[in-house]
What we know:
The chain is about 35% helix and about 25% strand. It is α/β, with parallel strands linked by helices. The protein is globular, with a radius of gyration of 18 Å. The protein has a six-stranded mixed sheet, sandwiched between helices. It has a four-stranded antiparallel sheet with strand order 2-1-4-5, covered by helices on one side. Helix 3 (about 90-100) packs across helix 4. The chain has two domains: about 1-75 and about 150-239, P-loop containing nucleotide triphosphate hydrolases (Rossmann fold, 3-Layer(aba) Sandwich), CATH 3.40.50.300; about 85-150, no CATH class.
Amino acid sequence: MLKIKSITKIFHGKTILNNVSLNVERGEIAVLLGESGVGKSTLLRILNNLETIDSGTVSLDDKQLDLAQINQKHTIGMVFQNFNVFEHLTVKENITIALEKVLKKSKQTADEIAQRLLAHYGLADKQDKYVSQLSGGQKQRLAIARTLAFKPKILCLDEPTSALDPLLTTHVANGIQELADEGYIILIATHDTALIEKLNCIIYLMKAGSIVESATSIDYLQHKNAYPQIKAFVEGVIV
């Protein structure tokens, strides 16, 4: 289980995260829902050592994580909103270069890992194309495959459907659900309310750096009036 306890982040005197706590079991999806600027992406960046925290702890299976060392151990992986794939490299090279340079895998091993992941994500026929030739949906699948090459236990996705049409959103949601079913701990930062209808997840509605309401997606969809703040956000009502 991932335990995020009392995380607080203050930047230039402004509280970005205010005592945020949540637990995510293996095979669960936590959706951090909210408008831009409420702190949801900052929390993912903290987990990936891209931002520091002022107070709070993060633990996995009751062992506290040293976030300053998290990138060296590859416990947590991040898929960014703009994918952060290398446009000037081929699809396969986007995976193999990190495996060879960072994990010191042999070229043959790196190639085998890349080909297996690309086949799984429907990109085998694109492996020798440059990333600049891919569609947005294909770039996202590549970004996920590259992250999974490091075998993280926790996967963070920042606005995974922001640039996708409704059909691709469904495909992405199905892929995320499959990852959860495989046992990954998944955290998603999003303002896309359509995702919570497509995922078996726990919704954490965030406002002004705090979690103000939470519900499983099943409970919310069956009893919307029991979760007035989530309902208002989904329906676009200002409260």
